Amino acid sequence: MIGKNGRFIQEIVDKSGVVRVKIEGDNEPEPTVAREEGSVPFIFVGTKDAIENAKMLLEYHLMSLKKVLFTVYFRIDWFLYF
Hints:
With 82 residues, the chain is mainly alpha-helical. The chain has 2 helices and 2 strands, in the order H-E-E-H. It has a single domain (4-81), classed as K Homology domain, type 1 (Ribosomal Protein S8, Chain: A, domain 1, 2-Layer Sandwich). A two-stranded antiparallel sheet has the order 1-2. Helix 1 packs across helix 2. The protein is globular, with a radius of gyration of 16 Å.
């Protein structure tokens, strides 16, 4: 999700106009948001518009990844069927 060497996150910062992205780790002494199992919270810092742009880019990327995973799964399932 983050990309090699943070490439995807840097792309979000560059395209959205957010000032920075804080990624909270497991050992955060005082987490800013509740954490779900297996997830890592992103905290966007910037103007309201820039943050909305970053959210949109992140959602688009997630949707693209889900489509790729679905396609791969479907092809494997199809291959095993025949």
